[in-house]
Amino acid sequence: MRERSCVLPENVLHFVTGDKMLLKYVSVFLLSMVPVLELRGAIPVAVSMDLNYWASLVICVIGNMLPVPFILLFIRFTAAAYSTPRILLGVLMISA
To answer: Predicted confidence band at 89 (pLDDT cuts at 50, 70, 90)?
Structure first.
C-alpha cells in the first residue's frame, strides 16, 4: 500500500511548526495593533526576532489597519454617549 504523502509543501510545514515561527508572526501582528507602538515598535521587534523583513512589514501594516473600520464604526456611538449631559448618583455631570 502506498504511503500518504503530505499535501503541504515542506517550507509551509516548517513555517507552522519549526522555531515557533507562526507564534512570532502572530505576536508581531498583535503588537502592531497597539495604538502607542503601531509600526514604529512592531517592525523593529520583528527584525530583532529574525523574521523576514518584507513579510513582517506586510503583516504589521495589515495589523495596523485592521482596527480602523471598527474604530470608525463605534466612534459615533462613543462620541454621542459622552457629548450628552448625564446624571449619575444625583450629581449633575455636564460635558464640555
So the answer is: very low
Centroid of chain to Cα 36: 12
Range of the domain at 45: 1-73
Rg (CA), the chain: 22
Whole-angstrom distance, CA of residue 70 vs CA of residue 44: 26
Number of domains in the chain: 1
Does some domain include residue 38?
Answer: yes
pLDDT digits (tens, 9 = 90+) for 38-69: 889 999 999 999 899 999 999 999 999 999 89
